[in-house]
Write a structure and sequence with these properties.
Shape: elongated
Strand order of the largest sheet: 1-2-3
Number of helices: 4
Structural class: alpha+beta
Order of helices and strands: HEHEHHE
Number of strands: 3
């Protein structure tokens, strides 16, 4: 841990945020598969983590992504999460695929 950081600055897992992300993505994109991972604890001392925002990873398979390039898929995920992108999420890793690309 860097100088100037304390135990209190280590982000904690936040199940309520994970549930909210899951609910928003489910409502907007009707995924066939969806996993939301809270990786916030891996980012102790990071400025965004210190501000209370989290680091998340999403794996989502949805027919809504069919025929769309990766950038468009990511934009769809960002749109589905709405204000959470400004208030709760500091970093979001996205693996968004249509069913025919799911492995």
């Amino acid at each position: 841990m860097s100088a100037g950081w304390s135990e209190a600055d280590i982000p904690r897992l936040n199940p309520a945020r994970v549930e909210r992300i899951h609910a928003l993505l489910t409502a907007a994109l009707a995924p066939l598969a969806l996993k939301v991972h809270d990786d916030s604890h891996k980012h102790a001392g990071h400025a965004g983590a210190r501000g209370g925002q989290g680091h998340f990873r999403v794996e989502i398979v949805s027919a809504a992504f069919a025929g769309k390039p990766p950038l468009a898929r990511h934009r769809m995920v960002y749109a589905a999460l709405g204000t959470m992108m400004q208030t709760d999420i500091h970093a979001l890793a996205i693996d968004a695929r249509p069913p025919d690309e799911a492995g």
